[in-house]
Amino acid sequence: MSKKSTKKTAKQTKGTKAAATPKGAGKPKAERKPAADAKPKRVSALDAAAEVLRKAGKPMRSQEMIAAMAEQGLWSSPNGRTPASTLYAAVLRELRDKGASSRFRKVDRGLFEYAG
Q1: By three-state DSSP, how is residue 110 classified?
Q2: Which of 1, 64, 72, 77 has the fewest C-beta atoms under 10 angstroms from its C-beta?
Q3: 102: left (phi over 0), alpha (psi -120 to 50) or beta
Q4: What is the distance between the alpha carbons of residues 99 and 93, in angstroms, rounded to a whole number?
Q5: Which residue in 32, 43, 91 sits closest to 64, CA to CA?
Q6: What is the C-alpha to C-alpha distance for residues 89 and 101, in angstroms, rounded to an integer?
């Protein structure tokens, strides 16, 4: 009994390599064409909250900030269930990470003002 060889020779495997490089990958970034559907960058909830607090000039709760952002057309929740909780957590995260250079200042529990 003879066993069949499953090894392929160099000639058999030479043309089977698939081209996995995306179109334009070899070009420098400056030469690549920009996307045709380049959309303007959306304003984040934190940026909108800072703007609302700056305009209001008084401390606000996250629920009030969400309502004011929607009213002024700065930001609206993309189908989120708890945008106020998400904003609250993001403001606290910025306070923790940036410290004194943060755009927000915590006045009381759940109450923030613009630190300008």
Answers
A1: coil
A2: 1
A3: beta
A4: 10
A5: 91
A6: 18
Q: How does pLDDT run across 69-114, given as a tens digit for each residue?
A: 999 999 999 999 999 999 999 999 999 999 999 999 999 999 999 9
* Closest-CA residue to 83 (of 95, 93, 72, 69): 69
The pair of three-digit structure tokens given for residue 5, joined into one six-digit string: 């060889």
Show the CA angle centred on residue 36, arms to residues 31 and 37, nearest 5°. 135
DSSP for residue 39: P
Token pair for 58: 């008084």
Q: How do the domains of the chain map onto residue ranges?
A: 45-114
Res 37 pLDDT > 80? no
Residue with tokens 């984040």: 44
SS3 assignment, position 106 = strand
Contact residues for 85 (Cβ-Cβ < 8 A; gap 6+): 62
Whole-model pTM: value is 0.66
Q: Helices 83-98 and 62-72, interaxial angle, to 10°?
A: 110
